[in-house]
Amino acid sequence: MLCTKCKGDTKVAESRRRNETTWRRRKCLSCGTQFRTVEVLEVLAAQPTPKPTPKPKPTPKPNSNRFRKTRYRKPLPSIEVEPDFDAMSDAELEAFFYREN
């Protein structure tokens, strides 16, 4: 802070706090003038915080999967599983290999 008389630099000689105010005694380093300053804490009214605006949901594109008509899939052809030849008896093996198509 500058001196009120000669505009020189000042230093704080004494500082006291009372409630929301701070009293300081300052002394000029050039001319020796002493003066006091008062700092008041100013409390501003709290402003309500604005509610966050929700982000709009993205609209799906008309050709997306969501709007496509569902198609019924054809059933897969049945796959014949080879039987367990080790567990078959001789009669079952002959019937399996020599059967007529």
Please state the average pLDDT score: 82
Please trace the helix and strand order, writing H or E for each element: EEEH
Structural Rg: 47 Å
Largest sheet: 3 strands, antiparallel
Strand order of the largest sheet: 1-2-3
Class by alpha and beta content: mainly beta
Residue ranges: pLDDT <50 for 5 or more in a row?
none
Question: Tally of extended strands?
Answer: 3
Proportion of strand residues? 15-25%
Model description:
With 101 residues, the protein is mainly beta. The N and C termini lie far apart (111 Å). It is rod-shaped and about 125 Å long. The chain is 8% helix and 24% strand. The protein has a domain at 10-40. It has a three-stranded antiparallel beta sheet, with no helix packed on it. It has one helix and three strands, in the order βββα. It has one helix spanning 90-97; strands at residues 10-18, 21-28, 34-40. The model has no long low-confidence stretch (mean pLDDT 82).
